[in-house]
Amino acid sequence: MTLGPRARAVAALAVAFAMMAVPAAAGATTLFGSGSSAEQPILNVLFKAYNQLHRNIKFNYLPDGGNAGVQDVQAGRRLFAVNTRPPLPSDAGTTYFKLFLDGLCVDVNPQNSLSNLTVAQTKDIFTGVYTNWGQVGGSNLSTTIDPVGRNSAAGSYTFFQQAILGNQTQSSNVAQETSDGLVATAVSKDPNAIGYIGLAHSGKGSGVKRVTLNGVSCNQANIKNETYPMFRYIWGVLPTNGASPAVEKFFDWVRTSKQAGQIINRAGAVAAFNKK
Predict the structure, then answer these.
(1) For burial by CB atoms within 10 Å, which of 103, 113, 122, 268 has the most?
(2) With 50 as the cut, is the pLDDT of residue 22 above it?
(3) What's the Cα-to-Cα distance from 170 to each of 19, 69, 175, 209, rounded to whole Å?
């Protein structure tokens, strides 16, 4: 008997679920996760270090955005997610755990002489009230502002809405990218651009320039002491029922171990709970 397209799709999905639950090879287990692309550089180093400690544990991580990752966990497509915004009522059936700290930086092209923005000015730029750099004090430009942000699949998009936009939707003139790396690339190539980018994607070599927000720099020290206006916790997300003990053990290592804390700090985020 030949399976129809729908039957083949159901069969393929069943196989995918099975792969999440059983060892990927003799003596090895693969933990399937998804979520934040902003935190992927930090996570990749943590995955590698944990695998060196536990050779039988491997990771398969899909950076489809923090909000999309939570939906993956809700639907049973992934064992865990990593998100860059706090839990919402729409996250029913999941449980959030604080892992470490990060900051969402405001960045411009290096050709822009701007050095500081207020939260109110940033809101006006990304809601379309300000559309020309001549409206923004401190800029040497009088050209159209080209704002760049994340799409709605990203936890960073929702966090920015909450922290800066007063839960408004960003303006239709905001170019929406699928990762922080793409936002940084867009800003680095456009003298008129401005974007919001995770700390690890906006440092040396990124091609963008961080501006202070309300006079406070987006750096590890100000994120650690929670004075930077867009400091944020990075959250591990598990299903409330039937969570993987192997993932819970990994999250606990990320949160508490001295080694993980050192990795987090070196990779461009900020350890929050780890042993000194």
Answers:
(1) 103
(2) no
(3) 39, 22, 10, 22
